[in-house]
């Protein structure tokens, strides 16, 4: 028995999310179907975490146990010929049997993209939320600072969360600014990427942070209210859940004991 770990990117626009569900048409379903077509094995793959319908991934990590003797560096090419063009296996490595893509993860990074230009960019419309009014970016960045560190994030998760506790640690939370599709930047206009890294994230956590932060940007909340909302541990105190298509899972990191080097694996693939 071997344990194969893969780095996967996908455009989540047309899927009901990553994780398999009765309705079908999930990223997991397509990956498992491709593996079955390749090896004849009906197996279950495990992802580093769920992504909701419409959410994207640049660096989702999955693993599965297989009896196949296909070399690790051959998996990406073999599966990509059997996958739809909006799901791509970027690399694969063999890892110890004890490795688990979710339980072994030590850090995850998400990005939520927002444009406040007057008009949306047609080429970004599936990946960036368009907010046509100006936003106070400096106030949004100030508000983010209140979320750093270890906290109970009950205010920033869905009541449907099934986790036993809501304590998580945010290592980094920043707002990256660049010109929008029409070249605008300054005076509240431009493209803002909310980038958050932590040891784990709750159901809808990043989208609720983004929705609340946009209220800060609109002047409906003060930056320091982010800390007050956090301390309340009450979902009703936070803002709306931002739409899914602006969210992308950027990367998942693991400790050196697992020997995962994606850069080297991608080079070997070629």
From TrEMBL:
CDD domains: PseudoU_synth_EcTruA
UniProt organism field: Cohnella fermenti
InterPro entries from the UniProt entry: PsdUridine_synth_cat_dom_sf, PsdUridine_synth_TruA, PsdUridine_synth_TruA_a/b_dom, PsdUridine_synth_TruA_C, TruA/RsuA/RluB/E/F_N
GO molecular function terms noted in the UniProt entry: RNA binding; tRNA pseudouridine(38-40) synthase activity
The protein, known as: tRNA pseudouridine synthase A
Catalytic residues (positions): 52 (nucleophile)
Domain of life where this protein originates: Bacteria
Catalytic activity, as annotated: uridine(38/39/40) in tRNA = pseudouridine(38/39/40) in tRNA
Subunit structure of this chain's protein: Homodimer.
Keywords for the protein's UniProt record, in alphabetical order: Isomerase, tRNA processing
Residues bound to substrate: 110
A Pfam family this chain is assigned to: PseudoU_synth_1
Function: Formation of pseudouridine at positions 38, 39 and 40 in the anticodon stem and loop of transfer RNAs.
Enzyme Commission number: 5.4.99.12
Family the entry assigns: Belongs to the tRNA pseudouridine synthase TruA family.
Pseudouridine synthase I TruA alpha/beta domain segment(s): 7-101, 145-254
Gene this chain is encoded by: truA
Cleavable signal peptide: none
Gene Ontology terms: biological process: tRNA pseudouridine synthesis
Top enzyme class: isomerase
């Amino acid at each position: 028995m071997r344990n194969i770990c893969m780095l996967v990117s996908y455009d989540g626009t047309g899927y009901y999310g990553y994780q398999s569900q009765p309705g079908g048409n999930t990223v997991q379903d397509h990956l498992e179907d491709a593996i079955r077509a390749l090896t004849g094995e009906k197996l279950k793959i495990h992802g580093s975490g769920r992504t909701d319908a419409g959410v994207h991934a640049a660096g989702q990590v999955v693993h599965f146990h297989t009896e196949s003797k296909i070399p690790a560096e051959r998996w990406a090419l073999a599966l990509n010929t059997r996958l739809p063009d909006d799901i791509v296996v970027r690399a694969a490595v063999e890892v110890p049997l004890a490795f688990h893509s979710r339980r072994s993860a030590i850090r995850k990074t998400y990005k939520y993209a927002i444009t406040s230009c007057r008009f949306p960019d047609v080429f970004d419309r599936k990946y960036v939320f368009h907010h046509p009014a100006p936003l106070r970016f400096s106030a949004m960045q100030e508000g983010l600072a209140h979320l750093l560190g270890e906290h109970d994030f009950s205010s920033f998760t869905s009541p449907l969360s099934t986790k036993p506790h809501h304590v998580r640690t945010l290592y980094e939370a920043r707002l990256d600014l660049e010109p929008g599709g029409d070249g605008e930047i300054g005076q509240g206009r431009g493209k803002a990427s909310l980038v958050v890294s932590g040891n784990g994230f709750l159901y809808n956590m990043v989208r609720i942070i983004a929705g609340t932060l946009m209220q800060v940007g609109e002047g409906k909340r003060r930056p320091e209210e982010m800390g007050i909302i956090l301390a309340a541990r009450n979902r009703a105190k936070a803002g709306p859940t931002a739409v899914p298509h602006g969210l992308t899972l950027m990367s998942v990191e693991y400790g050196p004991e697992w020997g995962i080097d994606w850069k080297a694996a991608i080079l070997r693939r070629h």
